Automatic annotation (TrEMBL):
Domain Periplasmic binding protein: 59-316
Organism, scientific name: Streptomyces armeniacus
UniProt key word Plastid: no
Lineage: Bacteria, Bacillati, Actinomycetota, Actinomycetes, Kitasatosporales
Protein name: Sugar ABC transporter substrate-binding protein
MF (Gene Ontology): carbohydrate binding
Length: 351
């Protein structure tokens, strides 16, 4: 839920969740499991029964500390997907938000001579060097979400679309308010020192340009935590006596925002979340609160990263494409989940 931006068109069907032909083909093909899979387990399509076990592959998996619901879901998705393959051995690190510690963990995986590395760096810029080291050692790197500074540091990047999150949140809100005169919206952003926050805000602002009747009247930056969400939402509510819509960048900090909203007794606006937590999807389905939608930043990207790593280790491409090699990059789509399609997406909602 936390990284670099790539623009994508607006839609909200599960079939467009991965947003590219390559990713869509990947889910149905030779990069998928040799075993059948319950869709509710991973939120992805069942593995292709025709895909036979191949060359044994050892995948090193290095992610940041799972101190956030989305990050924990990343770890769970990756590990669960690896278990579906009898030809995959997964070696995971404990995960750390300390750059030096994560570099050390990845160097240990390099020294173990794993076949492929999947890395979600705590800091893409700071960990570029260790990505380069792995690639130079002949270990392909699947760079997950937070992108390294150099394309030489990874073989394939897969991740979410931060600009697209903001764009689709703005478009959804714009369509809901397009007939309302002098509509007002507010924004509860994430950490302003992260590039991704600026990308989400830019996408949101760009979408609103198409709705001249709507004005963004306030913005607060929180810190992706429950506590910060509650504090900053309280400030927004105090500053604005009424408004028509709220876009909250992150469903985890949205827990605190929801508390502040309930404590203030406010319900005159609609709320759009970000990332796709199960809590928010349940609220959307119940349709008895201000929460009406959430824009996905799917943690299923970790499961697809395992698919890609296995394909790299076995020298496979992506079935359904003419190319012999897997793509260099894959951007997931930021679908909008509403009460009309929430049942489709509930299996990938994270806690």
């Amino acid at each position: 839920m936390r990284e670099n931006s790539h623009t994508s068109p607006f839609a909200s069907r599960r079939g467009l969740l991965f947003g590219s032909a390559a990713a869509g083909a990947l889910l149905a093909t030779g990069c998928t499991s040799n075993e059948s899979n319950d869709d509710e387990d991973t939120g992805k399509q069942p593995a292709n029964a025709a895909d036979k076990p191949g060359k044994k592959v050892t995948i090193g998996f290095a992610g940041p500390q799972a101190d956030h619901g989305w990050l924990n879901a990343i770890n769970e998705q990756g590990k669960r997907r690896a278990k579906e393959y009898e030809d995959v051995t997964l070696v995971s690190t404990e995960g750390s938000n300390d750059t030096a510690q994560q570099i050390g963990q990845i160097e240990t995986l390099i020294n173990k001579k794993v076949d492929v590395l999947v890395i979600l760096p705590a800091d893409g810029k700071a960990l570029t060097r260790v990505g380069l080291k792995a690639m130079r050692a002949g270990i392909p790197v699947v760079n997950l979400d937070r992108i390294f500074n150099s394309p030489q540091a990874y073989r394939c990047w897969i991740g979410g679309d931060n600009y697209g999150m903001g764009l689709n949140a703005g478009r959804y809100i714009g369509e809901q308010l397009k007939n309302k005169k002098n509509a007002k919206v507010v924004e509860l952003a994430g950490l302003d020192n992260l590039e991704l926050t600026g990308e989400r805000t830019k996408g949101f602002d760009d979408a609103l340009k198409n709705y001249p009747n709507i004005k963004k009247v306030a913005r607060q930056a929180a810190e992706f935590t429950v506590e910060s969400g509650q504090e900053k939402m309280s400030a927004l509510l105090q500053a604005e006596s009424s408004f028509d819509a709220l876009w909250n960048h992150d469903d985890d900090q949205g827990v605190g925002a929801d508390r502040a909203i309930k404590q203030a007794g406010r319900d005159e606006f609609l709320m759009v979340g970000g990332a796709g937590s199960k809590r928010v999807m349940d609220a959307i389905k119940a349709d008895n609160s201000v929460i009406k939608a959430t824009v996905l930043y799917p943690p299923t990207m970790a499961a697809s990263a395992i698919d890609l790593a296995r394909a790299l280790g076995q020298g496979k491409g992506v079935s359904g494409l003419a190319e012999l090699e897997i793509p260099a990059s894959m951007t997931l789509y930021s679908a909008v989940v509403t009460k009309d399609n929430v049942d489709e997406y509930l299996p990938i909602g994270f806690n």
